[in-house]
Amino acid sequence: MTSQLLAAIPLAIVASTPLLLAVLGELVVERAGMINLGIEGMMLTAAMTAVVAAQWTHSITIGFLAGIAGAAAIGALFGLFAIRFAVDQIVTGTAIVLLAQGLTGVVYRQLQQSAIFLQPVPRFDTDVVVPLAWIVIPIVLAFLLWRTRFGLRLRACGELPAAVTAVGASVAMHRWIALAIESVLTGIAGAYLALALSSGFAENMTSGRGFIALSIVIFGRWKLKGALLGTAVFGIAAAAQYSLQASGRGIPFHLLLAMPYVVTLLILCGIAGRVRAPESLGR
Q1: Quick one: pLDDT band at residue 265, thresholds 50, 70, 90?
Q2: Do the domain assignments include residue 279?
Q3: Taking Cα atoms as reference points, which of 107, 67, 99 lies closest to residue 80?
Q4: Which CATH number is 79's domain given?
Q5: Can you give the pLDDT at residue 170?
Q6: Helix, strand, or coil here: 16?
Q7: pLDDT tens profile 75-97
Q8: Closest CA relative to residue 75, chosen from 111, 117, 105, 32
Q9: What is the domain range of residue 105?
Q10: Model confidence over 142-179: pLDDT tens digits?
Q11: Confidence class of residue 256 from pLDDT cuts 50, 70 and 90?
Q12: pLDDT over 90 for what percent of the chain?
């Protein structure tokens, strides 16, 4: 069992990479004072647009760029309502998830028998994105958020927006930039999920990763170290799931699939009431 678990850890790291990218993007946005439940819809749309573009052009690069564009379109829709019109962020995010699930499902069914979807999906080497997500991007974000004036003001948007306004800076601008960063990271996550971990697009293929990303940000106390640790815990739970499947112990398959999510839920229950969110989060 132990050897099987250790053997499954590299696979779990690869499989949890899109989750980590989503976690990092959501952390930036929540540090700026927004709760984006629509991240699930952003990932799903990114996966869809990435597959369509990659199959149409036979280019992985264009597929990833299309994934970022798809996530950015959904992120812009969220920003329009949440930042420009100050609509309730929870309601906006929920509506966006439902919109993305319905829209991608309709488009997928319409294009499923077309010449585009009948073409093979270009394969992507996961060795490029994994170190980028686990090493490079966290270091860049740590420097940006905690070592620059922009990062200080962005974090102030989530704690005391009046202080940002007092120095002549724009809270809305910083929140739009945070959404842009999240769109890039989430777009890469969705494209990676569809082009590297899967052989194409499937309806609701994100399987709640966006909502898990939200819980990991809370578990990590809105810090990068905590985000990495929380994603690693989820990855270890996934590795245990894979090793139990390989061991053939007769545990029902659907119970094994639920294991990483149950572990995440238990962790959240254990830290409930003991974390301090940014003061202006969701306002």
Answers
A1: confident
A2: no
A3: 99
A4: 1.10.3470
A5: 94
A6: coil
A7: 999 999 999 999 999 999 999 99
A8: 32
A9: 2-271
A10: 999 999 999 999 999 999 999 999 999 999 999 999 99
A11: low
A12: 51
CA distance 236 to 250: 21
List, as own/partner pairs, every contact residues 81-86 make where C-beta atoms lie below 8 angstroms and the sequence separation is at least 24, other chains included.
82/34, 82/36, 83/34, 83/172, 83/175, 83/176, 83/179, 84/172
What is the 8-class DSSP label of residue 113? T
Burial of 261 (0-12, 13-18, 19+ CB in 10 A): middle
Domain count, the chain: 1
Residue 173: name the closest of 153, 203, 188 by CA: 153
The position carrying tokens 């028998």 is: 113
On whether residue 276 sits in a domain, the answer given is no
In a domain, 231, yes or no: yes
Return the amino acid letter for 54.
Answer: A
Read off the tokens for 43: 């990932």
Which segments of the chain does DSSP mark as H helices, in order?
2-15, 17-31, 39-57, 60-79, 89-111, 129-131, 137-146, 149-159, 161-166, 171-192, 209-219, 224-247, 253-271
Q: In this predicted model, which residue has the larger pLDDT, 278 or 36?
A: 36
Residue 278 lies in a domain: no
DSSP assignment string, 190-243: HHHIIIIISSS--TTTTTTHHHHHHHHHHHTTT-HHHHHHHHHHHHHHHHHHHH
Tell me the C-alpha distance between 227 and 204, whole Å: 24
Contact 31, 155 (CB under 8 A): yes
Asked if 28 and 181 count as a contact pair (C-beta separation under 8 A), the reply is yes
pTM: 0.91
